[in-house]
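Q: How would the structure tokens look for this protein?
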Amino acid sequence: MTTSAVPAQADQRATYRDVLAERRFRLLFSTRTLAVTADSLRITTFSVLVFTNTGSALFSALAFGVGFLPQLFGSVLLGSLADRLPPRALIAGGYALECAAALLLALLPMPVAASLAVVALVALVTPVFGGVSSRLVAQWLEGDAYVLGRSLNNIASSGAQLVGLALGGAAVAALGPHRAIAVSGALYLGCALAIRLRLPWLAPGAPRDARGGGGAVRASLRGAGLLLRGRPVRRLMLAQWLPSAFVAGAEGLIVAYAGGRHFAPGRYAVLMACLPVGMLIGDLLVGRLLGPDTRERLVVPLVALMGLPLLGFSMEPGVVLSSCLLLLCGFGFAYGLGVQRPFLDALPQDGQGQAFGLLGSGNMTLQGVGPVCFGAVAAGIGTGGAMALAGVAAVLTAGWILSWHAPTSPAPVEGCSTGSKGDTEHHA
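A: Here is the predicted structure in token form.
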């Protein structure tokens, strides 16, 4: 099925109004925002439920992170399904699976190990659903409109995470953890129904003759290998993985830092909110006020901005200065808008769904590993020093990106056509 896309040349600025004029994007955008709210509600509530049942901080932390770590394995082993199966069935089925898992946790008494396994199994297939959704956005929005579409998703995700966290606390207090998880299941069900009823049937991303033989696992391994062997795709993935992983390492130490500095109770929550608020402001300003070429030229300065404020934690600042530093750090996340178009141009046209799934799952996995690594460092040099070290790592990453000969014009993966040369897409 041939679909039209929002027209926007790569060197022409688009607007958020242009992006939201695409009806199918609005559907994916609204359901994804609702699903992120449900994710935050389920994750926090499930963590509370596990802690209530076990009294173990370790199991509670595991409940919080078990939905992230398996995603990279799922992307490598099953990612090709994002290009081999019809999008509507995949996306609606993904939300339905999330709903079923939430209702199992809410209604069926299970041992902790079994409930953790349920969440891990759902996480294993999450990259497939996320990958096909991102592929459709890249297909429907061209040039600068695609970048602003990603910006809108980032802004909505930041806001939805904050809403989900607040809703989780209120729902647990009012309903108890089991019923609060059931609320998240109802939200997932709403997403599944909206996609099934309002998204038209679309053909798989890869033509039948380009899907290769063998099963999904073999095709996924082959596709992941092709993507990661291509230098442009590999380094652009690392450029999106590493800075956020380092900042997540520092973010994971905020509670310990606030406790060590004897801040007033509740101040740690203010500090933790500064990063997503900074991210929201940065994406909104950079996406709305700057043109495509300017965003791409600012990639290195913005990555450096993610790391430089963290160096200030080596001086162990107070609450006000710490909040300002974290706001600046969050603003730097807008660098991702300058990487989106080069990354899309470097992808093989018949493997975009798997590529987006791999990008998202790798990002989630490394953001889970970052706090563990820098938490171990903090045991030796203190939380302030470890947060500063995370900042140094982000600045070094900016230097690595600067060393590229052509950071905004990567060559496509060898032997593959790119989305910028397709009949319905033009991104370069």
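The mean pLDDT is 81.

The chain has two domains: 1-206+216-228, 230-406.

Upvote if useful.
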